[in-house]
Request: fold
Amino acid sequence: MSVISVNNITKDYGNSRGVFNISFTVEDGEVMGFLGPNGAGKTTTIRQLMGFIHPDSGSVSINGMDCFTKSHEIQKSLGYLPGEIALMNDMTGMEFIRFIAKMKGLASLERAKELMAYFELDPRVRIKKMSKGMKQKMGIVVAFMQDPAILILDEPSSGLDPLMQNKFIDMILREKKKGKTILMSSHIFEEVEKTCDRVAIIRQGYIVAVDNIARLQKSKRKIFTVELSDRASAAAFAEKTGGTPDGENRVACAVSSDIDSFIKTLAEYPVVDLTARSQTLEEFFLHFYGGEAK
Reply:
Protein backbone atom coordinates (compact mmCIF):
# COMPACT_ATOMS: atom_id res chain seq x y z
CA MET A 1 0.00 0.00 0.00
CA SER A 2 1.29 3.47 -0.89
CA VAL A 3 1.36 5.63 2.23
CA ILE A 4 2.83 8.68 0.47
CA SER A 5 1.76 9.40 -3.12
CA VAL A 6 3.10 12.15 -5.35
CA ASN A 7 1.13 12.21 -8.60
CA ASN A 8 2.37 14.32 -11.52
CA ILE A 9 2.83 17.48 -9.49
CA THR A 10 4.11 20.72 -10.97
CA LYS A 11 4.97 23.89 -9.06
CA ASP A 12 6.47 26.38 -11.48
CA TYR A 13 8.17 29.48 -10.06
CA GLY A 14 9.43 30.61 -13.46
CA ASN A 15 12.97 30.72 -14.86
CA SER A 16 13.11 26.90 -14.72
CA ARG A 17 12.69 26.96 -10.93
CA GLY A 18 10.30 24.59 -9.22
CA VAL A 19 9.29 20.97 -9.80
CA PHE A 20 7.78 19.57 -12.96
CA ASN A 21 5.51 16.55 -13.47
CA ILE A 22 6.97 14.66 -10.49
CA SER A 23 5.62 11.25 -9.49
CA PHE A 24 6.73 8.67 -6.92
CA THR A 25 5.30 6.69 -4.01
CA VAL A 26 6.51 5.53 -0.60
CA GLU A 27 5.10 2.19 0.46
CA ASP A 28 4.02 1.13 3.95
CA GLY A 29 7.11 0.43 6.08
CA GLU A 30 9.53 1.66 3.41
CA VAL A 31 12.38 4.12 3.81
CA MET A 32 12.59 6.19 0.64
CA GLY A 33 15.56 8.43 -0.08
CA PHE A 34 14.95 11.67 -1.96
CA LEU A 35 18.34 12.43 -3.41
CA GLY A 36 19.54 15.43 -5.34
CA PRO A 37 21.89 18.41 -5.32
CA ASN A 38 20.96 21.52 -3.36
CA GLY A 39 18.34 23.49 -5.30
CA ALA A 40 17.08 20.47 -7.24
CA GLY A 41 13.51 20.68 -5.86
CA LYS A 42 13.55 18.40 -2.82
CA THR A 43 12.24 20.98 -0.36
CA THR A 44 9.61 22.29 -2.81
CA THR A 45 8.23 18.76 -3.14
CA ILE A 46 8.26 18.20 0.62
CA ARG A 47 6.50 21.50 1.31
CA GLN A 48 3.66 20.33 -0.92
CA LEU A 49 3.46 17.04 0.98
CA MET A 50 3.23 19.03 4.21
CA GLY A 51 0.36 21.11 2.80
CA PHE A 52 2.30 24.36 3.03
CA ILE A 53 1.94 25.09 -0.67
CA HIS A 54 -0.48 23.80 -3.29
CA PRO A 55 0.75 22.30 -6.57
CA ASP A 56 -0.15 24.09 -9.81
CA SER A 57 -1.23 20.70 -11.11
CA GLY A 58 -1.24 17.10 -9.92
CA SER A 59 -1.91 15.87 -6.40
CA VAL A 60 -0.15 14.72 -3.24
CA SER A 61 -1.67 12.45 -0.61
CA ILE A 62 -0.71 10.68 2.62
CA ASN A 63 -2.75 7.70 3.77
CA GLY A 64 -5.16 8.46 0.95
CA MET A 65 -5.84 12.00 2.24
CA ASP A 66 -5.15 15.14 0.24
CA CYS A 67 -2.13 16.88 1.75
CA PHE A 68 -3.53 20.38 1.28
CA THR A 69 -7.15 19.98 2.41
CA LYS A 70 -6.56 17.28 5.06
CA SER A 71 -3.22 18.47 6.47
CA HIS A 72 -4.58 18.78 10.05
CA GLU A 73 -5.74 15.16 10.04
CA ILE A 74 -2.47 13.95 8.48
CA GLN A 75 -0.37 15.72 11.15
CA LYS A 76 -1.72 13.37 13.84
CA SER A 77 0.42 10.49 12.56
CA LEU A 78 3.24 12.47 10.95
CA GLY A 79 6.65 13.62 12.18
CA TYR A 80 8.30 16.40 10.16
CA LEU A 81 11.82 17.80 10.19
CA PRO A 82 12.19 20.88 7.93
CA GLY A 83 15.36 21.71 6.06
CA GLU A 84 15.48 25.11 7.76
CA ILE A 85 14.40 24.77 11.37
CA ALA A 86 12.48 27.71 12.85
CA LEU A 87 12.70 27.79 16.64
CA MET A 88 11.64 30.35 19.26
CA ASN A 89 14.90 31.95 20.25
CA ASP A 90 13.81 33.31 23.63
CA MET A 91 12.76 29.87 24.90
CA THR A 92 15.04 27.23 26.36
CA GLY A 93 15.14 23.90 24.59
CA MET A 94 12.89 22.30 27.21
CA GLU A 95 10.36 25.14 27.06
CA PHE A 96 10.13 24.75 23.30
CA ILE A 97 9.75 20.97 23.51
CA ARG A 98 6.94 21.35 26.07
CA PHE A 99 5.28 23.95 23.83
CA ILE A 100 5.32 21.63 20.80
CA ALA A 101 4.25 18.65 22.91
CA LYS A 102 1.19 20.61 24.07
CA MET A 103 0.36 21.52 20.47
CA LYS A 104 0.61 17.85 19.50
CA GLY A 105 -1.45 16.75 22.48
CA LEU A 106 1.29 14.53 23.92
CA ALA A 107 0.54 13.24 27.40
CA SER A 108 4.13 12.28 28.18
CA LEU A 109 7.61 13.63 27.48
CA GLU A 110 9.34 10.30 28.09
CA ARG A 111 10.12 9.75 24.40
CA ALA A 112 11.48 13.31 24.12
CA LYS A 113 13.70 12.74 27.14
CA GLU A 114 15.03 9.51 25.66
CA LEU A 115 15.89 11.31 22.43
CA MET A 116 17.59 14.20 24.23
CA ALA A 117 19.73 11.75 26.18
CA TYR A 118 20.55 9.76 23.03
CA PHE A 119 21.70 12.85 21.12
CA GLU A 120 23.38 14.40 24.19
CA LEU A 121 21.22 17.52 23.98
CA ASP A 122 21.16 19.87 26.97
CA PRO A 123 17.58 21.28 26.90
CA ARG A 124 18.33 23.95 29.53
CA VAL A 125 20.22 26.10 26.99
CA ARG A 126 18.33 29.06 25.53
CA ILE A 127 17.72 28.46 21.83
CA LYS A 128 19.35 31.72 20.70
CA LYS A 129 22.62 30.46 22.25
CA MET A 130 22.47 27.04 20.59
CA SER A 131 24.86 26.01 17.81
CA LYS A 132 23.52 24.82 14.46
CA GLY A 133 24.14 21.23 15.55
CA MET A 134 22.17 21.70 18.77
CA LYS A 135 19.27 23.26 16.86
CA GLN A 136 19.31 20.30 14.48
CA LYS A 137 19.10 17.94 17.45
CA MET A 138 16.11 19.96 18.70
CA GLY A 139 14.41 19.48 15.34
CA ILE A 140 15.04 15.73 15.45
CA VAL A 141 13.60 15.46 18.98
CA VAL A 142 10.47 17.37 17.99
CA ALA A 143 9.97 15.28 14.83
CA PHE A 144 10.34 11.93 16.57
CA MET A 145 8.94 12.53 20.07
CA GLN A 146 5.34 11.60 19.24
CA ASP A 147 6.59 8.24 17.87
CA PRO A 148 4.82 8.87 14.53
CA ALA A 149 4.04 6.15 12.00
CA ILE A 150 5.15 8.41 9.12
CA LEU A 151 8.23 10.64 8.99
CA ILE A 152 9.16 13.28 6.42
CA LEU A 153 12.73 14.47 6.96
CA ASP A 154 14.38 17.23 4.94
CA GLU A 155 18.19 17.06 5.16
CA PRO A 156 17.92 15.56 8.67
CA SER A 157 21.62 15.26 9.55
CA SER A 158 22.61 18.73 8.33
CA GLY A 159 24.83 20.41 10.94
CA LEU A 160 25.44 17.25 12.96
CA ASP A 161 29.01 16.16 13.66
CA PRO A 162 30.11 12.74 12.30
CA LEU A 163 29.41 10.94 15.60
CA MET A 164 25.86 12.30 15.76
CA GLN A 165 25.32 11.57 12.06
CA ASN A 166 26.13 7.93 12.79
CA LYS A 167 23.78 7.92 15.78
CA PHE A 168 21.05 9.38 13.59
CA ILE A 169 21.57 6.66 10.99
CA ASP A 170 21.34 4.01 13.73
CA MET A 171 18.07 5.54 14.91
CA ILE A 172 16.60 5.50 11.41
CA LEU A 173 17.49 1.82 11.11
CA ARG A 174 15.69 1.12 14.40
CA GLU A 175 12.62 3.04 13.23
CA LYS A 176 12.74 1.06 10.00
CA LYS A 177 12.61 -2.21 11.97
CA LYS A 178 9.48 -0.90 13.71
CA GLY A 179 7.79 -0.60 10.32
CA LYS A 180 7.80 3.21 10.08
CA THR A 181 7.26 4.81 6.69
CA ILE A 182 9.99 7.39 6.04
CA LEU A 183 10.71 9.86 3.24
CA MET A 184 14.15 11.37 3.74
CA SER A 185 15.70 13.98 1.50
CA SER A 186 19.46 14.24 1.48
CA HIS A 187 22.48 15.26 -0.51
CA ILE A 188 24.64 12.84 1.51
CA PHE A 189 24.90 9.62 -0.48
CA GLU A 190 26.24 7.52 2.41
CA GLU A 191 23.29 8.44 4.63
CA VAL A 192 20.80 7.31 1.99
CA GLU A 193 22.88 4.26 1.07
CA LYS A 194 22.85 2.90 4.63
CA THR A 195 19.19 3.47 5.44
CA CYS A 196 16.98 3.46 2.35
CA ASP A 197 15.16 0.74 0.41
CA ARG A 198 14.62 2.84 -2.70
CA VAL A 199 15.72 6.23 -3.96
CA ALA A 200 14.09 8.90 -6.07
CA ILE A 201 16.68 11.13 -7.76
CA ILE A 202 15.69 14.68 -8.65
CA ARG A 203 17.62 17.06 -10.85
CA GLN A 204 16.64 20.61 -11.82
CA GLY A 205 13.04 19.97 -10.83
CA TYR A 206 12.61 16.66 -12.66
CA ILE A 207 12.67 13.10 -11.38
CA VAL A 208 15.39 11.36 -13.38
CA ALA A 209 15.25 7.95 -11.69
CA VAL A 210 13.38 5.94 -9.07
CA ASP A 211 15.34 2.82 -8.28
CA ASN A 212 16.21 0.14 -5.74
CA ILE A 213 19.16 1.17 -3.57
CA ALA A 214 21.08 -2.01 -4.45
CA ARG A 215 21.03 -1.14 -8.16
CA LEU A 216 21.99 2.42 -7.35
CA GLN A 217 24.97 1.21 -5.33
CA LYS A 218 26.21 -0.72 -8.37
CA SER A 219 26.28 2.57 -10.27
CA LYS A 220 28.57 4.15 -7.69
CA ARG A 221 32.22 4.06 -8.64
CA LYS A 222 35.61 4.18 -6.94
CA ILE A 223 38.08 6.86 -7.98
CA PHE A 224 41.66 5.54 -8.14
CA THR A 225 44.62 7.90 -8.41
CA VAL A 226 47.62 6.07 -9.83
CA GLU A 227 51.13 7.52 -9.71
CA LEU A 228 53.51 6.00 -12.24
CA SER A 229 57.27 6.19 -12.48
CA ASP A 230 57.46 8.43 -15.55
CA ARG A 231 55.40 10.64 -17.84
CA ALA A 232 55.38 8.20 -20.76
CA SER A 233 54.00 5.39 -18.61
CA ALA A 234 51.32 7.73 -17.22
CA ALA A 235 50.26 8.76 -20.74
CA ALA A 236 50.09 5.14 -21.91
CA PHE A 237 48.12 4.09 -18.82
CA ALA A 238 45.65 6.95 -19.25
CA GLU A 239 45.09 6.01 -22.89
CA LYS A 240 44.52 2.33 -22.12
CA THR A 241 42.19 2.86 -19.16
CA GLY A 242 40.40 6.00 -20.30
CA GLY A 243 41.71 7.73 -17.20
CA THR A 244 42.29 11.45 -16.75
CA PRO A 245 45.80 12.90 -16.28
CA ASP A 246 46.12 14.34 -12.78
CA GLY A 247 49.55 15.96 -12.64
CA GLU A 248 52.72 14.98 -14.45
CA ASN A 249 52.86 11.26 -13.60
CA ARG A 250 49.41 10.67 -12.10
CA VAL A 251 46.19 9.37 -13.63
CA ALA A 252 42.69 9.39 -12.09
CA CYS A 253 40.45 6.45 -13.03
CA ALA A 254 36.78 5.89 -12.19
CA VAL A 255 36.05 2.18 -11.78
CA SER A 256 32.70 0.55 -11.04
CA SER A 257 32.24 -3.21 -11.23
CA ASP A 258 35.30 -4.41 -13.15
CA ILE A 259 37.90 -3.95 -10.39
CA ASP A 260 39.69 -7.19 -11.32
CA SER A 261 40.38 -6.02 -14.86
CA PHE A 262 41.63 -2.67 -13.56
CA ILE A 263 44.05 -4.35 -11.12
CA LYS A 264 45.40 -6.59 -13.89
CA THR A 265 46.01 -3.55 -16.06
CA LEU A 266 47.82 -1.87 -13.17
CA ALA A 267 50.24 -4.82 -13.04
CA GLU A 268 51.43 -4.01 -16.56
CA TYR A 269 52.79 -0.59 -15.55
CA PRO A 270 55.45 0.75 -13.14
CA VAL A 271 53.16 1.94 -10.32
CA VAL A 272 54.75 4.12 -7.63
CA ASP A 273 51.65 4.86 -5.56
CA LEU A 274 47.92 4.12 -5.53
CA THR A 275 45.10 5.80 -3.60
CA ALA A 276 41.35 5.17 -3.71
CA ARG A 277 38.28 7.08 -2.55
CA SER A 278 34.54 6.86 -2.96
CA GLN A 279 32.83 8.90 -5.63
CA THR A 280 31.47 12.24 -4.41
CA LEU A 281 27.79 12.98 -4.84
CA GLU A 282 28.56 15.50 -7.59
CA GLU A 283 30.65 12.93 -9.44
CA PHE A 284 27.89 10.37 -8.98
CA PHE A 285 25.34 12.70 -10.57
CA LEU A 286 27.61 13.35 -13.53
CA HIS A 287 28.10 9.61 -14.00
CA PHE A 288 24.48 8.63 -13.36
CA TYR A 289 22.67 10.96 -15.69
CA GLY A 290 25.29 13.12 -17.35
CA GLY A 291 25.57 16.84 -17.80
CA GLU A 292 26.53 19.46 -15.28
CA ALA A 293 25.59 18.76 -11.68
CA LYS A 294 23.54 21.74 -10.60
In short: The mean pLDDT is 91.
